[in-house]
Write a structure and sequence with these properties.
The protein is α+β, with helices and mostly antiparallel strands. The protein has one domain. Helices cover 16% and strands 32% of the residues. The protein has an eight-stranded mixed sheet. It has a two-stranded antiparallel sheet with strand order 1-2. It is globular, with a radius of gyration of 21 Å. The C terminus is likely disordered.
Length: 296
């Protein structure tokens, strides 16, 4: 169509999206069956394409009832996979699975206010948005410890090599984003800080800023290659270790009433880590993509 080829797998159910928003097929090559015969065609697959975003909003403005809202947005093949599995699995099981996932991703005990729900399914742009809302159960204990940890699991798509003499196959399949918003009862002071990692296999960036009563963290991991060559293993291994070390985000429950001298303070993405997908995000029993388990 207009000089551009589009490929679809008719065996996949619940597919959505117009030509520009349909899922990509990670199958390598295709053979067009024509009377004249054709050679194998390499299927296009853009590893940089955004496929998942997750947001945690921790609302501490009411000390009597703090809440956590988790919003997950799936695109392209990730939306297709989740849409299919929601339709083929008992919905109560899907809700239980997401609740378990939410509890794993945050250090405070949770109680369901609003279970996992699909709030938007745009079949033209192939975008599926879900939402969950929880209450922090033992709020006094959280105040006593003065720490809340939110985990990003995007590092799971970039495993460590078993043997650095050989190539490494990653399981990353797109661009992933994790936003964390902490709402405090009083204004906070914070100097913006950021960090980044870049190599031929993936790019990572994280930044934190504050405005008024809101502290915001944004993490992005973008896959660039599915295979790490032998001569790039050492750099990849070092950067993957750094990515793993940045999987935790720690925030003070009482807020930040004074400006840290370095602009980093006790909560620093440069020390304690920012890593979701990163969803990100995943339903191991629901989404049939290796990278999905743990970052959805």
């Amino acid at each position: 169509m207009a000089g551009k080829g589009y490929y679809f797998d008719p065996t996949i159910g619940k597919q959505a999206g117009d030509f520009e928003h349909s899922a990509q097929l990670d199958l390598g090559y295709a053979l067009n069956l024509t009377a004249a015969g054709e050679d194998l065609v390499e299927l296009p697959f853009d590893l940089k394409r955004k496929v998942f975003a997750i947001k945690h909003c921790v609302d501490l403005r009411d000390r009597g009832k703090a809440t956590v809202t988790v919003t997950r947005t799936y695109f392209a093949q990730m939306a297709d996979s989740l849409r299919f599995d929601i339709g083929s699995t008992e919905f109560s099981e899907v809700q239980e699975d997401f609740f378990a996932r939410a509890k794993e991703d945050i250090s405070v005990p949770l109680k369901v206010i609003k279970p996992f729900t699909v709030i938007k399914d745009d079949t033209r742009t192939n975008t599926l948005i879900t939402e969950e809302r929880y209450e922090i159960v033992d709020l006094e204990d959280a105040y006593e410890k003065d720490r809340i940890r939110v985990t990003t699991n995007f590092h799971r798509g970039f495993p460590y090599p078993d043997d650095e003499r050989f190539q490494l196959q990653t399981t990353a399949m797109g661009s992933l984003e994790h936003d964390i918003e902490i709402l405090y009862p009083n204004d906070i002071d914070w100097n913006p800080c950021s960090e980044s990692i870049a190599n031929p296999c993936f790019e990572f960036s994280a930044k934190i800023c504050a405005e008024g009563r809101r502290l915001e963290s944004h993490t992005r991991v973008t896959a660039l290659r599915e295979v790490v060559d032998h001569d790039g293993i050492e750099q990849y291994n070092n950067d993957a270790s750094r990515l793993y070390g940045r999987r935790h985000n720690r925030f003070k429950v009482h807020g930040y009433d004074r400006l840290p001298a370095t602009g980093r303070g006790e909560y620093s993405i440069l020390r304690t880590a920012v890593t979701s997908l990163l969803e990100a995000l995943a339903i191991a029993s629901v989404i049939v993509i290796v990278f999905v388990h743990g970052w959805l």
